[in-house]
Specification:
Layout lengths: L15 E10 L1 H8 L1 H4 L1 H4 L10 E11 L9 E7 L3 E4 L1 E4 L2 E4 L13 E5 L5 H20 L8 E4 L5 H12 L3 E6 L4 H7 L4 E4 L12 E5 L4 H11 L3 E6 L20 E2 L2 H5 L3 H20 L3 E5 L2 H13 L6 E6 L3
Parallel strand pairs: 8-9, 8-11, 9-10, 11-12, 12-13, 14-15
Antiparallel strand pairs: 1-2, 1-4, 1-15, 2-3, 3-7, 5-6, 6-7
Helix pairs in contact: 4-5, 4-9
Amino acid sequence: MVDGEPLRPDLGEGEVQLLIERFALTANNVTYAALGDELGYWRIFPASEGWGLLPAWGYARALASRSPALAEGQRVYGLVPTASYLTVRPAPHRFGFVDMTPHRVDLSSVYNQYLWVADEGDDTDLVMRPLFGTSVLLDLKLSEPGDVAQTVVATSASAKTAYGLAYLLSEREVKTIGLTSAPRRAWVEGLGLYDAVLAYDEIDAIDPAGDAVLVDFAGDRRLLRELHERLGGTLVRSISVGFTHRRRGGEGVSVRGPTPEFFFAPEEMKGRGRKLAQRYVEAWPGFARVLEGTLRIEQISTGDELKRVYRDLVEGRTDPALAHVVRVAP
């Protein structure tokens, strides 16, 4: 389906060639592309000059191995390029391996770790693991002593990471206000996860209870400025997570109040690995039940379909109830 590294009969000692079977395509990938130069996402899988291989979370199978750390036929979950093949140099760790290919060793370890997969792997888990993992990290950040807010306002409330966070906050009885586009308002309300859902042209109706934290998944600087002004003295913290609306521009727009903090998941994981795993395992079954009634997964398998879905993600045209998994290998 997608051009990639050709099958390599000349694997070096210690190398393994992975056949990429499926990967998820979400707004997360749009953020990777938007911040590819700033945060090094384009460096993970180098491409020809002027081109880039977009990272995605996927399942892959060892097609050929010259490493004792990974046997042929073993399936793994981790970051893969939007391509057909990937050559790695695995070093074993407890639950899988770490890729020690030279150009990746100085990147965040989060992006270099691969986990064993016992069977073909579940598509819902494939889509949601990195997204809900980010939700859990945000919840941990917002529950630290001294950082607990009475109200959380989330932009792009239909985003899976946003409503994953709303689910976690509801367990702690934190008031959540979700902001979304007018056509999506009814769908977001139907999730039953936010205490209030407002369209972007209704921000004057925001009614925080006590101190408020803004969690911005949209990346629209003009909207950010309006929200800072509306929340005024109640706003104690502003956290920037995603860039679903980055296309609107406004990067030079200044904001009043607390300076927006950029949330970078690999940095946030430092020192929280055990807490993250524990909280994820505890919270996932309940959130999975929410997803059963809200999430539909569509598999696509051609380059044209991949381009169409990616453009829809960039333009914000995707159905919030829909997620896409790209099937590469038959």
